[in-house]
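Hey, resending since the last one bounced:
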Amino acid sequence: MLFRILQGVGILALVGCAVLALQGTPLLGPEWSRPRILYAGAGAISALSLLALGRLGLMVMRLQAAQAALAARLDTRG
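The structure tokens again:
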């Protein structure tokens, strides 16, 4: 559950960074703002880290479950 929450927060942070980056352009902002775009890029790196941590956690949980199932199968055969 914690890893899904990390992924959800990461997605929300990426959306926020995308909005912030667009506000640094003439599309959503008054003019080009290089610092705003750079700040959004730095935040996107942290958001991607949250997504990666969530995914790695889910992969570890799946590996542990597969390992436990394999150990149970080996115990019943031996």
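The chain has a mean pLDDT of 95.

Sorry for the duplicate.
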